[in-house]
Predict the 3D structure of the following.
Amino acid sequence: MTEIETVDTALSTGGAEKVVLTGASKTYDTASGPTIALQATDLTIEPGEFVCIVGPSGCGKTTLLQLLAGFLEPTDGTVEVGGKIVRGPAVDRGVVFQAPTLYPWLSVRGNVEFGPSVRRVPKAQRRKQSTAMLEKVGLGDFGDKRPYELSGGMQQRAQIARVLINDPAIILMDEPYGALDQLTRERLQVDLLKIWRQARKTIVFITHSVEEATFLATRVLVMSARPGRVILDRRVELPGDTPDGVRDPSVLGTPEFAALKAELSKAIYDAHG
């Protein structure tokens, strides 16, 4: 697997930026009147954190992510990244969706190189970058394939590579593994942790799976039923955790993991009430 050393070949290991929400809320105007999707939220995410967001369906998880991405503007309050107010999408924030959004008319490599191509990065440089990224996500031999020739898991790997090549400080992931089978999901979870540790990015990850959140995160946010608000902000420390290590799936069988999973599950259950 190719080692990522410098920005022009792939990932930088710095540049992560603090995320700060101050009184950020979102209200939608509907036929039946205003609907509060997200209550006023104060939240700080430090550079390099892996934050998972869980909660009942419709609790505002995706709304919160879209505010961070700049796809939505808050009704009240502010969202800041790196000390600057978020006023729309930007290259410092990459988004990975549940359904792969690869362009079917491009090869896998062409999809990964799309961002650098738009930014007019020289062909030789972006080829070097894409080769490193494809190797990084385990698709080194699939650059010339079309998206339809890949499995669902492989398409998600390609989507992650397409985000990473732009070297964002923050990666926003909206249930990226929700449609995948359990085995593929588990493999991609470990792969993502390896990428996160090496790249030292900030990741905000939405999931309906408490087990997935507990395994991946350094911090889990539990949201209430609509109108959404953060009702639990829980640091995650599990046996074997080290500053630069990657969690082994064997941690899922530990009493500490079971206890934390039960705590988070109870919080979500209570949120329905």
